[in-house]
Amino acid sequence: MSAMSLVTSLIYRRRSRLFGRLVQEALALYGMEVPAAAEIGPGLVVFHRGFGTVLHPYTTLGANVTLYNGVTIGRADPWVPQESSAMRRVVLEDGVTVCAGAKIVCKSGVLTVGADTVVGANAVLTRSTGPGEIWAGVPARKVGERNRVHEQGRAAAVN
């Protein structure tokens, strides 16, 4: 069993009745904002202590999600009061990797990032993805598929 990082350990303890507020303040020292309402699955990995990472309260992270520093997951309409926003939730399915500086912002409804998808560094993703895709750019667009990348890497290693 691998050791959990201090930041990840704090994220899982942010809902504690006794220490919740203290944990939120400790995360803030790392520049992280992870509301108690955000749903976090098992196996979360946070690299570089997650400096500058912000999750919206209506965020769901599946199992084995990886977040790098500077990630923002939230609404595309922050000027609208939350209760008037058309955004309902952002869901990152199992195995998603969100690279440094990426922004995932939902305009309306539910934005779903498919299982095993990679959102590239500094990408601005504003729409749902399928499973196993690679998205990059501003605005983000699909630039590849993970399975093909792995297969090409294996073929190159064999030759």
Summarize the structure.
The chain is α/β, with parallel strands linked by helices and 159 residues long. Helix content is 19%, strand content 28%. It has helices at residues 6-12, 20-29, 146-158; strands at residues 39-40, 45-46, 54-55, 59-61, 66-67, 72-75, 87-92, 97-98, 103-106, 109-113, 118-119, 124-125, 133-136, 141-145.
Description:
The chain is of the alpha/beta class. It is built from 3 helices and 14 strands. The strands form 3 sheets. Strands 2-5-8-11-13-14 form a 6-stranded mixed β-sheet. Strands 1-4-7-10 form a 4-stranded parallel β-sheet, with no helix packed on it. A hairpin with a 4-residue loop joins β13 and β14. The relative contact order is 0.11.
Question: What are the salient characteristics of this protein?
Answer:
six-stranded mixed beta sheet; Ser_O-AcTrfase; Trimer_LpxA-like_sf; four-stranded parallel beta sheet; 3 helices; 19% helix; Serine O-acetyltransferase; disordered C terminus
Uncertain residue segments = 154-159
Structural class: alpha/beta
- Largest β sheet strand count, sense and barrel closure: 6 strands, mixed
N-to-C SSE series?
Answer: HHEEEEEEEEEEEEEEH
Main-sheet strand order equals 2-5-8-11-13-14
Helix content: 10-25%
What is the total tally of β strands? 14
What is the approximate shape?
A: globular
Please give the count of helices.
3
**Mean pLDDT over all positions:** 89
Q: Hey, roughly how much beta strand do the residues contain?
A: 25-35%
| Integer-rounded radius of gyration | 16 Å
Q: End-to-end span in angstroms?
A: 35 Å
Protein name: Serine O-acetyltransferase
InterPro entries: Ser_O-AcTrfase, Trimer_LpxA-like_sf
